[in-house]
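pasting for the record
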Amino acid sequence: MPYADPATANNLLADSIDSIKKRNGGGEWREVLTATKRHRSVLLHWLPGTAQTTHLHPHSEEIFVVHEGEVEIDFGGGRVERAGPGGILYAGAQTPHAVRVAGDRPLLMMCFLSRNEPDSDTIDLPER
């Protein structure tokens, strides 16, 4: 997940997925929900065909929770996981992973990332 600057976070006491979707519309977007020095939470709305290259977080753990659509995460070594609404996936620190929208419906997915720091917490890996 690209760096989420704490200054851009809502950090609202309460919000709803319906309200967030209404604010952002039907295109591709991401909204930084909460961000502190210790964590980030981001709601992503990706269109079919969207993919993120293989990368890893040296010191961070990332949790993915699918709300709508389907995601496919390639954890390397032949480990590819696909999840739909209600699915939860986990990439531990040092775990290479590539994320893509699976199927022909938009993906709405919440991501939680610990200890995310700019320029030091994501390493892009060569394509396989």
